[in-house]
Amino acid sequence: MKKTGAQIFIDCLIKEGVDTIFGFPGGAVLPIYDALYGVTAFKHILVRHEQGAVHMADGYARATGRPGIVLVTSGPGATNTVTGIATAYMDSIPLVVFTGQVPTALIGNDAFQEADIIGITRPCTKHNYLVKDVKDLARIIKEAFYIATTGRPGPVLVDMPKDVLNAHAEFKYPEKVELKNYQPTYKGHPGQIKKAVDLILKSKRPVIYTGGGVVLSNASDELKIFAEKLSIPVTNTLMGLGGFPGTHPLFLGMLGMHGTYAANMAVTSTDCLIAIGARFDDRVTGKVDEFAPYAKIIHVDIDPTSISKNVRVDIPIVGDVKLVLKDMIKVVDEAKKALGTDFKYVPRALAEWHGQVNKWAETHKLSYKLNGKTIKPQYVIERIYNLTKGKAIITTEVGQNQMWAAQFYKFDRPRTFLSSGGLGTMGFGFPAAIGAQLAFPDKVVIDIAGDGSIQMNIQELATAVQYKLPVKVAILNNRFLGMVRQWQEFFYEKRYSYTCMDVAPDFVKVAEAYGAVGLRAATVDEVDWVIKKALAVKNKPVFMDFQVDPAEDVYPMVPAGQPLNKMLLV
Amino acid sequence: MRHTISILVDNEFGVLSKVAGLFSGRGFNIESLCVAETLDPQVSRMTIVTTGDDQVVEQITKQLNKLINVIKVSDLTAEEHIERELAMIKVNVDVKDRAEILSIIDIFRGKVVDVSPTTYTIEMTGDNEKVNAIIKLLRPFGIKEIVRTGKIAMARSPKSGK
Ligand SMILES: Cc1ncc(C[n+]2csc(CCOP(=O)(O)OP(=O)(O)O)c2C)c(N)n1
Predict the structure, then answer these.
(1) What is the model's pTM?
(2) Residues contacting residue A102 through CB under 8 Å, at least 6 positions apart
């Protein structure tokens, strides 16, 4: 029996086992919305802005590891997704974004609500497709899911003209994908792995530096085993947080611009840097020529273009992080056998190094000064950490709120810290929290927000209310675009040009106007009360307005372009 | 250093813009670019001449390989290869210069493919240097227009690249 393109679209999603899609209707996708009427095989979440839809799908994907699915109309619907897609692309998050398009005959005519979304998203998608014939639709959708979720994951966009959605074709979902040009390397080269382990066993001051790749490839357990076996200290990038337990004795904290003193000093002094699923971002390396100056560098990554892109690497290993770590563990075990009782001296030889690292950690702990009068934003995060027993899924906006969340919440599990690392998108955290909450209805999901960022996708409150989602938003309300203000304080002679945002809505009233709960803490002793009260709310979103000290800065800080050991400390 | 990169791609809508966009988006240089179908009509070959140090060219090759529509990338600079370019040169001819121009064309094994009372249009094939050389010699007579195809290249080895 022949089916319409719209029906084929829905059947494909069912075949892929999709349980939730995030969408917003319009003319070009009306055939799909009509076919969706009464469909119960998956949920359609009606958002309030297409950017919100993409961030929700992204939050869903980060929290679950499954691809996030978006459906929007042509023209403005499609262009509204661009920031969300770029956000996912920079952080290698698997999404499949479906856009409606004007009928094929009108493409190129400046038709009503036409936008060349294929052209627009070419540089921020892993791949994109314009479907020109309904006969290709099922194959393309199959390929889109495959490409989005394999290799280095990323967003894939499928643009579907309206006439294709109305046309008929026989529906057969392909069993498997045939893409002769696309074959990611999963297994690491055994010779390189052997070389890497040899180097590690000879090193005196090794450090493991891991990024989002560990989380993406679900390699946390292997990472822990590997680090513990050789007793190597571990530091994470922002994207890597949760990939190694934040409370582990080997954990140094985050590295980079707002990294810990211990992590940045360790990376600067190491003789063997083991980079795993990380890409040497400039926020991580600081001045690149002086990054890890004494180290031989081993780099494990599934994407060959990440290797030797901005830092020269001594032992590159292309492959899936999980598989490579498994192989490395095997090689270590063999070495252990070969060395017999001598092996225990290998980790023990690091005693001096551990002593040094611990001294760094002791001398400059992450800290802030309580003054009893104003609420310190770091204190709010510590209290959230304690009152949620470290078990919440935390999303963040961008700015100081993001850095404090990364520093003061300890993430023991992967996929519990969801933050826009690569693009740094304000407005990400709240919709991402909604996506994560939909995936995990019983978990506590909290967006750590700034008063600036939350206003960038605040309309999604209505979505959270509509679907009775108990998402919590902790607004660290400093009445400033705090991180930019901090840069102006440090580097622009305190000329606070356009960063004061003291004209802001009453967030408690905003929440209430949407049918959510609004709470406010103006003094230190109200903080716990507000958090506890918020945690008790079960079927609607909560805004917590914490009126924090506007003068607080994020420390340590490596000024942009400086080497990592040149930190400004509190 | 200058590199000649030969790329097999799916002969499909939008692929050229994906390749060209990759170069512009990442700040890589394109000196010339040629595209046409291969023996297999579903596959096209692009020949791109680019410049950059080894690290840049390594990135270009890896990034190209990452595009889903790219089948094969080879940097021909590293191996023995033949390269050719076609140029059409429209040059002014004065009666007194005719003989000299014709002899230049002859030396370079070019061809006059169109004649007007005041101009010759010359077809010239060769590697870059040869084309540049004839242009240099003809310039004093007054060149009205030049059209160059950009370089195409093929590895010398007996294996077929399709
Ligand atoms: C969409 C977007 N626009 C601009 C920026 C630049 N930016 C980075 S941090 C920041 C300030 C954020 O202010 P707020 O949300 O109040 O957080 P705070 O730093 O005060 O915690 C700005 C404007 C950005 N990251 N994203």
Answers:
(1) 0.95
(2) A28, A74, A75, A109, A111, A112, A113, A114, A161, A162
